[in-house]
Design brief:
alpha+beta; Double Stranded RNA Binding Domain; 4-stranded antiparallel beta sheet; elongated
Length: 84
C-alpha cells in the first residue's frame, strides 16, 4: 500500500480475523488495522495524516520514507570511460 509517499506492509491476523499493517522505512511505529480492505485503507490514510499533523503540531520534521535509490557521483573522467 502507498499513500503520500509512504509505503506499508499488510498482514492477516487469523486469531482476531483482521488485516493489520505497518509503515515501512521510518523509525517511528505507525500501525493501522481493519476488518475489510476499505477499513484497512482508511486506517492507513488516517495514520499517515495523523503522523504528519502530529509532527507539525509538535514542531518535528516528519521522516520521509526511503526511496530505495542510490545516488552516486563520479568524476566526468570515470563516467566518460564507462561509455566507451
Amino acid at each position: 500500500m502507498s499513500y503520500r509517499g509512504y509505503n506499508a506492509k499488510v498482514e492477516f491476523d487469523p486469531e482476531d480475523n483482521i488485516l493489520f499493517g505497518y509503515v515501512l522505512g521510518v523509525p517511528e511505529s505507525i500501525t493501522f488495522h481493519g476488518e475489510t480492505v476499505a477499513q484497512l485503507t482508511e486506517g492507513f490514510h488516517a495514520s499517515i495524516d495523523h503522523y504528519i499533523s502530529d509532527c507539525e503540531a509538535t514542531g518535528r520534521k516528519p521522516y520521509k520514507p526511503y526511496s530505495g535509490k542510490l545516488m552516486l557521483r563520479v568524476s566526468p573522467d570515470v563516467s566518460m570511460s564507462m561509455l566507451q
